[in-house]
Amino acid sequence: MAEHFKLLVAEAKADGKIEVSAPFDGALIATIETGGSDAVEQALATAYALYRDKKNWLTAEQRINILHKTAGIMQSRFDELAIESAREGGKPLIDSKAEVARAIDGIKNCVEVLRTEHGEEIPMGKNSASMNRLAFTTREPIGVVVAVSAFNHPLNLAVHQMGPAIAAGCPVIIKPAEDTPLSCFRLIGILREAGLPEGWCQGIVTSTLEIATQLVTDKRVAFFSFIGSARVGWHLRSQLAPGTRCALEHGGVAPVIVAEDADIDDAVPILAKGGFYHAGQVCVSVQRVFAHKSIARHLAQRIAEAGAKMKVGDPTLADTEIGPLIRHHETSRIDDWVKDALAKGAELISGGSKLSASTYAATVLFNTPADAIIFSNEIFGPVICVYEYDDIDDAIALANGLDVSFQAAVFSKNIDTCMYVFKQIDAAAVMVNDHTAFRVDWMPFAGLKHSGHGVGGIPHTFREMQTEKMMVIRSPSL
To answer: Quick one: 246 and 279 in the same domain?
Structure first.
């Protein structure tokens, strides 16, 4: 029998329920209650009342103890969390286990920043106006945090949004993706089991988009954290109440420059993993590879061979390397985009077809023309496009020619080539001899241009969810 998940809003009543099914085979996993306008109002009222009651804020010691216990409980349920993430999101079990390990480490990182981050002394006594004064800052929670999360990393993204909020002392309300709410709700349950009072972390799947907008745009929201599509993210930002700060994380079309002196044997498995991992459903997935014409075709063929060897199928099996797309219509959309590219002149090196209603073959296209949909849009599927170039400046110009900018990469044995690409390419981060999807959870992670707003990464989000308050002391003894 499918498990049933309750609405995680204190004293609120559900207005319905939705079914959560496995993207691979459509099997029913669970049902989960949805909340309407009254539930959103209850969640906001509860969270805001907690924030306004400063005498009863959770102490740093309490937050540290809760997060410590949370990490321990998660570790004790490691396999259960990995299987659930794989089933609901379709990420292969081997990668879902890596996600759980990252999520646990992320909770521990929240403890670390809570212990080490602090205010600072502001220089005084430097001129006549500042004589006999001492000034310093402390940090306080910014207020109610509302988070809207994405499907592709259902546990770790929840950690990145809820963990820093709890560490900072902010009441947080999260709306997970409707396709993958279970890992998020499981995490909220673990936090409460670890001692977090219910009102400090609430979870809701809203029954309509209008009600989700009601949650996000309320004037009591101090910080809005969004991970998802650019279209939705920028639209919601435009509707935020005055004073609400925000962080938006969208997608990109992460470019890779491969110079003629690159180590192909080293690059191929890295690029294949970076492009086909989670069936390409990663915001910095390898999609556009610009390779020198002397090696481009050989590189494309080698990536194709590597992709062809990857097992596609049931994400809960230990040997599966590429799982399903999150929805069947996404599989069809990817197929349409590939067919569009082929019709306009792209060369098919491998793949290019559905394997089932939910899975798509690892695909490599060569020299996709500029008028193809896939040339300038994020495919979010297991498709890598390889382009040949004569001059590296031409490749960089193509890489920089889109309205998105996130992470990029360069492969070369020449440090000057790497430094040149680093300097010239539009990106928030450039990986050298590594794929564009590399990430550890404490590093800054930021989309530029249309790709996002603000800086992610647990320490950076922790700071964003706080305000600095300054005290200036005047004393003749100073």
So the answer is: no
Contacts of residues 150-153 at CB distance under 8 Å and 24 or more positions apart, as own/partner, are 150/177, 150/227, 150/228, 151/89, 151/177, 151/179, 151/180, 151/281, 151/326, 152/89, 152/91, 152/278, 152/281, 152/282, 152/283, 152/326, 153/89, 153/91, 153/99
* Same-domain check for residues 380 and 464: no
For the residues 135-163, what does the mean pLDDT come to? 97
Task: Tell me, yes or no, whether 298 and 184 share the same domain.
Answer: no
CA distance 422 to 405: 13
Shortest CA distance to 170 belongs to which of 142, 197, 146, 189? 142
State percent of the chain over pLDDT 90: 98
What does the angle CA 358 – CA 361 – CA 365 come to, to the nearest 5 degrees?
130
CA distances for 306 relative to 58, 130, 303, 463, angstroms: 51, 66, 5, 41
As separate numbers, helices (DSSP H) first and strands (DSSP E) second, the chain gives: 15, 21
End-to-end CA gap in the chain: 71
Considering its fold, how many domains does the chain have in total? 2
According to DSSP, residue 146 is labeled E
Whether 442 maps to a domain, the answer reads no
- CATH number (domain holding residue 245): 3.40.605.10
What tens digit of pLDDT does each residue of 53-84 get? 999 999 999 999 999 999 999 999 999 999 99
Dist. CA 462–CA 261, nearest whole Å: 41
Range of the domain at 341: 255-432
Do 205 and 278 reside in the same domain of the chain? no
pLDDT digits (tens, 9 = 90+) for 29-49: 999 999 999 999 999 999 999
Check which CATH number belongs to the domain holding 381 and give it.
Answer: 3.40.309.10
Shared domain for 205 and 346, answered yes or no, is: no
Instruction: Give residue 94's pLDDT.
Output: 96
**Residues with catalytic roles:** 249, 283
Q: Is it the case that residue 1 has pLDDT exceeding 80?
A: no
Whether the CB-CB separation of 364 and 351 falls below 8 Å is answered with yes
Q: Is residue 476 part of a domain?
A: no
The H-or-E segment that residue 130 falls in is: none
pLDDT score, position 2: 83
- Looking at the structure, tell me whether residues 36 and 122 fall in a common domain: yes
Strand partners, 227: 249
pLDDT over threshold 80, residue 397 = yes
